[in-house]
Amino acid sequence: MAQPQLESTEAELIRRVCGGEPQAFEELLRPYERLVYATAISILRNPADAEEVAQEAVLKAFSKLSSFRGESRFSTWLVQITYNEAKMKLRKERQHLYESIDRAQQDQEGEYWPRDFADWRPIPSELLETEELREALQNGINSLSPMYREIVILRDVQSLSLKDTAAVLGIPEGSVKTRLHRARLQLRDFLAPGVDGSWSSGQNYRKVRAW
Amino acid sequence: MSTIEISCVEVWREISNYLDGEISVELRDRMRTHFEVCEHCTAVLDGTRNVVQLVGDGRIFRTPDGFSERLYKKIRERLSP
Fold this sequence. Notes:
The complex is a heterodimer. Chain A is mostly helical. Chain A has helices at residues 10-18, 24-29, 33-44, 47-64, 74-104, 131-143, 146-157, 162-169, 173-195. The two termini of chain A are 38 Å apart. Helices cover 69% and strands 0% of the residues of chain B. Chain B is mostly helical. Chain B is elongated and about 70 Å long. At the A-B interface, helix 2, helix 3, helix 4, helix 6 and helix 7 of A face helix 1, helix 3 and helix 4 of B.
């Protein structure tokens, strides 16, 4: 097995894979395993299906790598492939149901007002190690309808830029903003009841996302 | 310096964009002034920011046990037909 170069950049790794050194693909992929899985599960919501799609998407990325032109980041390109694969699987399996849901949601982009004004103090970071909070967050995300769930996963879980999110979903940036807004407020409303006393004590939640 | 007042409804509409820095400086200043005096809007802002930070933490979507091993096994199978 080739000794990985510590300073290998993505562009170099891609050149190596395309230049006949397929083993470099593992090194290229490693930082993005979770990204691929999270994207798949956000759409499929089933761990077994998500893993299967993640594998298919990664193999597809490998075979199509020579067509990657570097116009977007590699991670965005990979998310795009995973997103398309997951959508395709969903359509195949639940075609009628999914399409009717899709249509029904089109008029849901209107206003969303907060439902309660509980003072929600920052949640301490160490509570994320508890199964309870992780489950609550997952349930909260799963409770969102698909169009809002996708937005939260791409923007807030994966930290894709506004522009990249719009590109992956094929919608205008303005729609990303509107949906993200609604999704975040819904999540807050979903999680707020559990916050009252049960996980709001303690010091500030310190991790701040680099915008 | 005087700032034009802004209603709670207008503030809620822009909270997500406020967190992302996707608003004009002028609107941001008006919202800041509003948050200083409005507890309800501050609660919504804090809660929403909290949600964004928690969701973005990365620990909520752990891959299943053995995920990496199975993934790289698949890739290696593909590499060596």
